[in-house]
Specification:
With about 625 residues, the protein is an alpha+beta fold. It folds into 4 domains: about 280 residues, no CATH class; about 80 residues, Sandwich (Immunoglobulin-like), CATH 2.60.40; about 140 residues, Immunoglobulin-like (Sandwich), CATH 2.60.40; about 70 residues, Sandwich (Immunoglobulin-like). The protein is built from 9 helices and 33 strands. The strands form 9 sheets. The protein has a 7-stranded mixed beta sheet, with no helix packed on it. The longest helix has 14 residues. The chain starts with a helix and ends with a strand. About 40% of the residues are buried.
Amino acid sequence: MLKKYLLLGFILPELLISQIPTDYYSGTDGLSGYQLKTKLHNIISTKTYNYHYDDLKTLYGQTDIDKYYDYDASNNTYLLDIYSNNPSGTTAYHYTLSNIISTANAEGLGWNREHMMPQSSFNSAYPMYSDLFFVIPTDARINQLRSNYPYGKAGSTVYYNFSNGSKQAANGTPNATYTGRVFEPIDEFKGDIARSLLYYAVRYEGKLGGFNFSTNADPTKDQNPLDGTEEKAYENWYVAMLLNWHQSDPVSQREIDRNNAVYNLQKNRNPFIDHPEWVNMIWVQTPDPVAPSAPSQLLLERNSAYFVNLKWQANSEADILGYKIYRDGVLVGTSNTNSFSADHLSPSTTYNFHVKAYDNAYLESPQSNTLNVTTLDNDIFSKDLQIVRYLEGTGNNKAFEIANKTGHKVSLNGYKLYIQYKGTAYYFGEPFELEGDIDNNQSFVVINPNANFSCFSTSNAKFVTAAPSLTFSGSQYVDLSYKSATVDAIGIKGQDNTNANRSLYRKSEITNPTATFDINEWTSYASDYCQGLGVLGINDITNRNLDFNIYPNPVVNQLNVNGEISKAKSAKIYDLSGKLIKEINNPFVNQKSIDVQSLLPSTYILNIDGKSVKFIKK
């Protein structure tokens, strides 16, 4: 049995090097505090691969084989279980990949998958559910008894002592507000756990406020250490403990090797293994006690039927973290810039907005001026994101393409892909949560990591996941939801569907999503068909399969229109904000031109029966 201190101290000191890809952390120089954290989030959350929870049963063979403690060169198949391994003595039992079980009433019976941050925190949603950086193999019994308790230092009341010295006990962590039970690992692995949880806080920044964190009025019962913030992430006592564990148990060769192995699979890294110094640079701060001043000059930058763009004067304080945006007194979002798109609005509806700034100490400013906005009656834009491609093919050839034709950049936080299975009754599998942003007139592909399409490279997809919603066979109902409401759907809920072995492409004239699937909105192709996937003809929504053209452009007085337009029912002219400027019913009965001399000089959109083109009025 070869122990860690021998392996690192005498055999492999030259291997204590991370295999960081060139320029992986480009853009981090000169940053510190939460600005550094956000930059790291952007790096490690882009172009990641996410696997199914069941895949971990075999992937651990690449990431968690014990080469450091109980190592046997002739039989190198033991899993490294940080809850049961005993580096200073004899490990009571060992597991191979085949020893996985679901439950146990004693130690040593088998292992299962442990979420260092309990899955109840994020409602068992992907990609969190199977993220290899914080989902690890551990003894099944210890996993059960660790339950949803946070990590911490064991106090004087110990409820369970485990074979390697780890404990479940009353919380004895210094300065902790929570007084319930905690799980304390042995010293050898405290830094490993701390860096995993700090990775979690970076990787899922932007989602943390929507996860389940305790709002119990009694802080002694706040079992979940998340504090609802996106930047600091954890309660003060928990941050202090994680930083202490990080310092007292430095990065090991095992962590470096595991970081490289997970990177090979997920295409992202734990930055605190590569750069341990970043932990203190982010979380060790001395915020000032002065609240920021109120943001000023809150203005309407753009109006529409389903969204409004807001802008305000940025605060001058150097410690501003961001701004909170309120609609009719309810917090609807945050921004780290001085602008925000408030979407999922209703046409012809009046809303009241105000903004507050917040700083490093999470002190809030007074509110800005209140802005009263009435949305437009209608506009040319889609009311929400839209599924425009559905590919169901051979094996794992599963993909969606989702388009943004809404007229504004959309934050993907809050959007989920669901699948419905059939058991004794129909039920929904764990969702896959989207993240990041999508620009207007852009689309993105969500694809299974094991797909092998001939005309699309998996690496070009925005989201690569084997979450349940990307394992459909064609008989299941799948949908795109925002929060709790279905936005767009493939198939019919609560029945077996018939979308197997074919690719469905949304017809170009269908400009809005619908919660009720209608096969007439789609063109059907053969299994594995993927031509044009990821390169939609929506790069400019104002040029969608036009069967007319205009001249002159730019125009002074009369805009001439050529093409099969004699039966057109309407011609509408919009400004670039989406506001309807002019409407003509049956416009081309006796002519093939439109009088635009009354328009002010600007750029406009001419829409004829749903098909549009831009023109410039001199």
